[in-house]
Amino acid sequence: MANEMVRIAEVIVDVPANNTDRPFDYRIPPELQDDVQVGSRVLVPFGHRKVIGYCIGIKTASSSMRLKSIIDVMDMAPPLTPELVQLGQVMAEEYLCHTITALQSMVPAVLKGTYQKMVKLHPESREPLFSLLSDPEQQLYSLLEKRGECTWEEVNKIPGMSRSLLKKLIEEERILVEERIGDRVTKQKVTWVWAADADQLRSGLQTLSPRAVRQREILQYFLDHPGEVELSKLLTHIRTTRSTVKRLVEQGWLCWEEREQYRDPYGDRTFGKTEPLPLTKEQQRAFQAIVRPIHEKRAHTILLHGVTGSGKTEIYLQAIEEVLRQKREAIVLVPEISLTPQMVQRFKGRFGKQVAVLHSRLSNGERYDEWRKIRQGEVQIAIGARSAIFAPFQNLGLIIIDEEHETSYKQEENPKYHARDIAKWRAQAHGATLVLGSATPAVESYFKARTGEYEWIQLTERVHGRPFPEVQVVDMREELRKGNRSMFSQLLARSLKECIERGEQAVLFLNRRGFATFVMCRSCGETLICPHCDITLTYHQTNQTVRCHYCGYAERLPQTCPNCQSKHIRHFGTGTQRVEAELLRQFPDIKVIRMDVDTTSRKGAHERLLAQFRDGKAHVLLGTQMIAKGLDFPKVTLVGVIAADTMLHLPDFRAAERTFQLLMQVGGRAGRHEQPGKVIIQTYSPDHYSIHLAATYQTEMFYRQELLIRKRHVYPPFCSLFTIMISHVDRIHLMKYGQQMAQFIRNKAPADCHLLGPVPPPIAKLKDRYRLQMLIKCQTDPKVLVRLKHILHQIENMFDDRELVISMDREIMNFPVGYSDLLETSQSLI
DNA sequence: AGCACGCCGACT
DNA sequence: GTCGGCGTGCTC
């Protein structure tokens, strides 16, 4: 009886625009009653076209007068859970993006629709007398004669084709192009072979003609290896062909069958089963702390602050076992760069087929396979990079974010989310435990741990008791005074030589090839910084000025150092190629592997280069910080940081934090094995706290110092940040809009909101468009945030200029109130 | 975002 | 009259 009640679906349509960013109501036709659920992907008529949408709610009445009906449901089961649907709405609100954009970011690429407009001949237009037709008409007919239809673009290419002519001749249809989920994408057809009757195999061998060598071999194989085998495996074991096996099948000795199975990227690899390792006292303590909230099923965040080599992974593994025992699920986030086969192996080894792996090297189809294993409850553990945080589990018990300070957890495209925030929301919704693991946590996380918002657990001992490598800081100003103008200090050059002579390997770091260049005095090491923001000034070659990218302060490039009056003042920005050239000039006989954006852009190049280095094919590995993570080379005994300053002086309030983190990571790299390691840090600022405290392993001191500075200049965690980027082809217009926008925000924004800028960003002109950015620092208070977000929404419609593009971004550190309330209503729908 | 509709100036 | 350009407003 209840079925007779009208059911109406609220649908978010796949049209990312401001005025379509709201639910539209559709009738659920009787035949789709059972299929349309919260989270379903549906096809709906929208205006004059058909689009994909997501059902985000179901109700029995609508305020809208005439409703259209849902055309179809796209999937067997809804791709999104009610929880993820809610999360999508929260993301849209918090990250200032369209709801559909947030929802799309949670599903694999194969589920994203692309549309193509197709045209075919109007049914009423009968075959005409060809010769009487105009030129464009003739072309159109010949185009459509071959195939029944063609794309809109093709038709428009016909010269002289007019709109009204087309209308007469053509019928339009928008079609949805689904990525082909055929044999290759979802499932793979695999032939399995087995003996028809194992006991008869011997007699079979006798019956066969002695000349049928291959056939006998195959039967012998089944005698030796009872059971089923994949045909492809059989063919590699015994050098034979499909047709020979076929002959045996036809004679009735063997059976075979084609089966569909998931294509498993790690399928042909066998993972040695690993057993839980005994935990040290310290590890045991950490393990207990993680397991406690898991048992209590309460949302809880733990910062696992452990030095490199303190055995965090083993703790993760054992905590996951605990979660599985509760029949709950776990997500493990790892930075893309350390999602190496070794890492995967560790998890697959312990948990086997209960693990789905999601990383960027998977094809769309493979990714879809892994995702479906999660959605259908075939696996309980998802390990992957940033986007794995959306793994559609329904009963999460634990989320682990390893190396939680990594910048790769922040998505740079819309929606610009941070996986750490998403993790907090999801943990809250599921009553799950969130573990943030790092040797060098983000300053914000450390702050929260020390103020009691997170539980703080430290691991101070290395598992095998290996000592930390000795760190030496070389003052490059001193080198210059000694007349050494090369980029290698005497100490580094000598150490490198000795290292290579001993037959050991070295790793050299050059920090990120910054697009922003800064100005520094080579004599005293002072850099030019903004008097208002304490941020490094950026050098602009075009007009010989230095500028602050936060507040807009500018001055002419000074000829002499304002601090020591030296003339050795110049801008910096050394690339890896230059270091390589210099290295080969000083050491002509050595082999260097260079890893940077240029050498690793090709697919698989990254892994290949690392494997080469591991195999001892080169003496030196030279690269940007992409080589700093999760690498463990037995023969590396020397690690050199060419210029610690390049990162330190980036125009970013997190520059010191990044520098400290990198240097600490580097320390963990050298000498993890038998030989003792040595780290050499070259710098023009040996006294800078981030460098000095990293070199002396004074973690605690660093965070205190950094927090002091953040507090003084009001940066996170002592404020919330919004950035606004606007762009326009016309520079004058852009500047005018920027000024007006800034004025508007300054007038309307609540007190304690400070707008910095507008100011040209590091890349001031991109793709023929000028750009300006603004930064808003504001109090982290829900009321203030709501008001500010309201104002930010207003500015989107402030200017009537299609050329003006506005994009907004937010750094979130607190989860919004109300999410758990929303969730309660949604869960009653399950 | 698309797409229609409607207004306007320009053209065989 | 008809064609195409462009601004406006709507999509359950």
From TrEMBL:
Keywords, in A-Z order: ATP-binding, DNA replication, DNA-binding, Helicase, Hydrolase, Isomerase, Metal-binding, Nucleotide-binding, Primosome, Zinc
Record domain Helicase C-terminal: where: 556-715
Boundaries of every Helicase ATP-binding domain copy: 293-459
Annotated Pfam families: DEAD (PF00270), Helicase_C (PF00271), PriA_3primeBD (PF17764), PriA_C (PF18074), Zn_ribbon_PriA (PF18319)
Keyword Iron-sulfur: no
Positions annotated to bind Zn(2+) 2: C530, C533, C548, C551
CDD domains: DEXHc_priA (cd17929), SF2_C_priA (cd18804)
GO biological process, one term: double-strand break repair
Protein name: Replication restart protein PriA
